[in-house]
# Entry
Amino acid sequence: MTDLRGALRATRRRLEEAGVPSPRVDAELLLGAAVGLSRTRLYAEPQRVLSAEEARRLDSLVTRRASREPLAYVLGEWGFRGLTLKIDARVLVPRPETECVVDRCLALLRALPRPDVLDLGTGSGAIALAIASEHPGAQVVAVDSERGALALARENAAAAGLLDRISLVRGDLGRAAPGARFDLVVSNPPYVRPGELGSLEPEVRDWEPKIALVGDGLHRLVGETASALLRPGGSIVLEVGDDQAPGVAAVLTELGFAGGRISADLGGRDRIVEAQWLT
# Structure
């Protein structure tokens, strides 16, 4: 018989031994998921005894996390700008830096009452759904090449009550929504160089879909697509790797974009590039 205090202690120890970067927080979230309690309630009821089924459920969750499977995959959901998104191995786990990308998008759209937005490589739908939920007039076309990702994005759009304002389209970064015109094109394309993959954390390297993770030169392709689809005065916003912002900004200038701007994420790293299409 194990109570919550003991289960939390044992879970944290297992995660520490496995090298999990945030064992305390992960232990709280896994235990909470196993017993159906919030992190706060775990500490309010430390002597509550786990049932046999709860103990089995916890062991299964912890075993998965100790194998370095991403916490979001183990939990099956992840928070993003106030949304709770269903997340699994079909898509990347939404990152905090991507929330900063949404900030820049919303700033550019603020003066437009009914903007048309294109999200290239939508994955779970995180960016598209955040924009639609925070800008009540926005209509968003969300494109992905993977059927599984689009199916998951559709589930998330339905759960958020946004299916009427999100159009989900199967396509790639170079062929998306032909004939349509947009006020904003946003993308978080694959930008990890093949040679960098081995240096990433196991959660990323061994578990997340390579097709959504690894790519080189795709920012140019997205820029070319955006130049054909943006209305005059429209903007492009891209998430980039740690050392890629100056090069991506130069590519956009070469493609005919103007007013290039580089922004930092919450960690102070230059991770967002934006520019305007004037013609």
